[in-house]
Amino acid sequence: MSVWLRVSYLQITSNGCLLDHEPAVSIECHFSLTLARLGFPFNRSRLGHGEARAGVDYPRSFGEMQEWFRTDADCLDYLAWLRWPEGFVCPSCGQPGGWALSDGRFECAACHGRSSVTAGTIFDRTRTPLTVWFNACWLFASGKDGISALSLKRTLEMGSVQTAWMILHRFRSVLVRPGRERLTGTVEVDETYIGGEQKGLRGGRARGKKVLTGIAVEILPAPKGIGRCRIAPLPDASATSLRDFLTDHVEPGTHVITDGWRGYPGIESLDYTHEPRNQSAARARGEDPGELLPVVHRIASLVKRWLLGTHQGAVNPAHLPAYLDEFVFRFNRRHSRSRGMVFYRVLELAVDHEPVRYRDVIASSRPRAQPPDPPLTRGHPPSLDRAPANRPWRTRTPHSG
Fold first, then answer.
1. In Å, what is the CA distance from 249 to each residue of 79, 137, 179, 205, 295?
2. Which of 108, 186, 275, 384 is most solvent-facing, going by the fewest CB within 10 Å?
3. Nearest alpha carbon to residue 319 among 202, 194, 132
4. d(Cα 267, Cα 247) in Å, to the nearest integer?
5. Nearest by Cα to 231 from 316, 131, 150, 327
6. CA-CA distance, 15 to 89, in Å (whole number)?
7. What angle is formed at CA 299 by the lines to CA 293 and CA 301, rounded to 5 degrees?
């Protein structure tokens, strides 16, 4: 913190250099020593100049993550590095250069507007300490099956499940990268219902059976087999809805494999090559109809199992798209060489996303008929920026006799 106080009266250019050269030399040296003392091995000028490196741009393990981000100040500095790798850029006017103020904010040299590192991101106006956010992000990104709000609340000692739930939903809201590439090559496409059957309703595409969901999966040559996937709710199984799903998630020119549902014929006009596989014909040949689209059926089974396992099936249909985005994000990065890379990607997306408010996430703004029980503790979640406990187990008096 002393570093920011010392440079508060100096002007900073877009590349992070100070205009007053003599103070710049001494302060940059002090800053580097401070980073080394706090355990920061990452280079603040590497982002955007090549592939991120483990142990340099992001921690390789949970232990290293705890070593890097011991305090809220450490977390804030990492977010600043992710957001402005080449130096401060004003969020209001877009001009580079400004002053670092003693309260942690920055003042633009052009418009003199003031902004903080977290302003305009999903961390905007948060009352939760950044150490809690970073630990939640690691648990969210590193776990093979993710983490539920209740488990996160218990692990990080939060006062209510609502706080943990909101943090997880803010992370889910940033997972779809703007302008991400559509699926290419050979793609299997099918629909499934997520949420289970309802009594009195029969038939695969009957209305009222929870949420109809479209699934598209890339088919890769052996031995890889499965590439990326896309999953999204569908309003219905009509040709219009299915074509909208295809154009949103599958690149034109792709070879598309589907079942014999009547909503798919005609997609050739959208510049797809279509290979329908008829289940009735397969059954007549004595073949298993479930093996016509094996890959997309496997993905459907995985996402249903994930929802039932990690979240106990307690997913509101209004929030299902966010959970599906999380599954897709996690599945498409299943071969990532480091869990720290996934942690890095989530935070990278988080500082580039607009604020997400509670009212933007909740399914309904109407109050409940029966108000929920108040949390056992109130106030801010405790920061994980804590002094050493000094081995409390050694203070215990041995039992006599």
1. 31, 27, 11, 22, 17
2. 275
3. 194
4. 10
5. 327
6. 10
7. 100
Residue corresponding to tokens 């990065």: 333
- How many other CB atoms are there within 10 angstroms of residue 33's CB atom? 11
Terminal C-alpha separation, the chain? 52
Amino acid found at 362: I
- Give the integer Cα–Cα distance in Å for 149 and 168: 7
Q: Is the pLDDT of residue 15 over 50?
A: no
- The phi, psi pair for 3, rounded to 5°, reads -65, -45
pLDDT in the model for residue 27:
36
Taking the CA atoms of residue 192, residue 205, residue 268 and residue 324 in that order, the dihedral angle to the nearest 10 degrees is -30
Q: In this structure, what token pair is assigned to residue 139?
A: 């648990």
Q: Which of 179, 74, 180, 191 is nearest to 135 (CA)?
A: 74
Kindly list the distances between the CA atom of residue 233 and the CA atoms of 176, 327, 348, in Å, as whole numbers in the listed order: 15, 13, 26
Q: What is the pLDDT of residue 312?
A: 78
Q: What are the structural domain ranges in the chain?
A: 2-172, 186-335
User: Rounded to an integer, what distance in angstroms lies between the CA atom of residue 106 and that of residue 99?
Assistant: 5
| The CATH number of the domain covering residues in 186-335 | 3.30.420.10
Better-predicted residue by pLDDT, 348 or 30: 348
Structure tokens at 385: 């920026």
Type and span of the H or E element at 325: helix 320-332
Q: How many residues appear in the chain?
A: 401
